[in-house]
Amino acid sequence: IYNNAQCCISEELGIVGVDCEAPSTTPSDATGLRSICAAAGKVPRCCAVPIAGQDVLCTNA
Length: 61
Fold this sequence. Notes:
Elements (H helix, E strand, L loop, with lengths): L3 E5 L1 E3 L3 E3 L11 H10 L3 E5 L10 E3 L1
Antiparallel strand pairs: 1-4, 2-3, 4-5
């Protein structure tokens, strides 16, 4: 269910990603996602498919 890698500014209520975007490059693993997001000043999240343009059901990567 959490197959949508995202880099987010923050997370609300532990489940809704705020100002999320796909990583600038495709990560090969969670460590890669963390590095890519950190370089952009964001935090890595794995989210379910966005609903109405909002990333919901997110978890730490």
